[in-house]
Amino acid sequence: SLYQRLLLIRRARVSMILDKLPKQIRQLSMELGKEVGLQLIGSEIEVDRNVLLALQEPLIHLLRNSMDHGIEDPQTRRNQNKPSQGTIVIQASVDNSSFVLTIEDDGRGIDKDQILKKAIDKGLARQDRDYTDEEIYGFLFASGFSTAETISNVSGRGVGLDSVSHTIKRLGGKIEIQSTKGKGSQFCLTVPQNEGVKTRRLILLVCANQQFAIKESEVLEIVDSAKLGVLKQSDGIAMYRDSVISYLNLVKLFQLNSLNQAETFKAMVIVQIKTIRFGLLVDKIVQTLDAVIEPIQNKKLNQNQFFEGTVAIGSKAPILVLNLKNLVAVYSSNLISPDADRID
């Protein structure tokens, strides 16, 4: 099948992302004045190339985190009867249909009391309840959360582990943390082996000369604008099949440059996510096709929760695939939806 052929073609060795790390370690060791040895295990394992590309930035982020926050300076380690050289072990493995990547160091470990205190100060936790280790470690993934007292060029720059968590969740994976104070920490990333290859039936549409793609399975109907009664354009409300329905204007949502000053539109795509129906204003529908959804390579766009990937068509620039579930999650309180049967 097309899917199976794509899986074979897109496989690559984990060394594709691991071979660059020794140089990073040497540079960071000099910058931080630390002695660090790196052990790489499982470089020969093959998994989907897109999975590796998606994990590259989280891996580097966790490596820098271990170097800056985990591994102590040589004198501190000697005072604690540790070897002056710290060790970071990065191991890749395969567990059934999952790809597992662990980053482990023999540094100072995670101070759970410090994390909890910071979480309480930021209003993320309460003083009147107890928290499990897993819950405390979970605060590390809150947006902007950092225990760093000072800003450095390595970490503590306002970009926390939330960026790592976002990528892993997008891949359908999970992060597990184990740590012992004074002995070290381990971050374990588990993601589906082939999450990077998703063949979907997509609808390509245009808004303000910008192409987007949406999954056909989430579309109920495409309605000509002449058949819709717009009740209140400023609030995004229209009549659809004798019912009031809300719609989203992608031009305004993504602040696109539009030559259409009158803000008229040619069609509305009626979408259903679970029990919520809403419309998307579009200038035109280009085509429907089967395509592979690939990870977003642009760092800034990759952090935008309203995009779940890209599709490549010929030699043209990649087209962004909208994450309609996240659109609903963010804007559901503003959407008026007629009664709808659940679609799973």
Radius of gyration: 24 Å
Poorly predicted regions: 339-344
The end-to-end distance, rounded to whole angstroms, is 25 Å
Structural class: alpha+beta
Q: What is the H/E order? A: HEHHEEHHEEHHHEEEEEEEEHEEEHEEH
* Helix share bin: 25-40%
The general outline is: elongated
- The count of β-strands is 18
Tally of helical runs = 11
Mean pLDDT: 84
Strand order of the largest sheet: 10-14-15-13-12-11
Largest sheet at a glance? Answer: 6 strands, mixed
Strand content: 25-35%
What does this structure look like?
This protein has 344 residues and is an alpha+beta fold. Helices cover 27% and strands 34% of the residues. It contains eleven helices and 18 strands. It has a six-stranded mixed sheet with strand order 10-14-15-13-12-11. Residues 339-344 have low confidence and may be disordered.
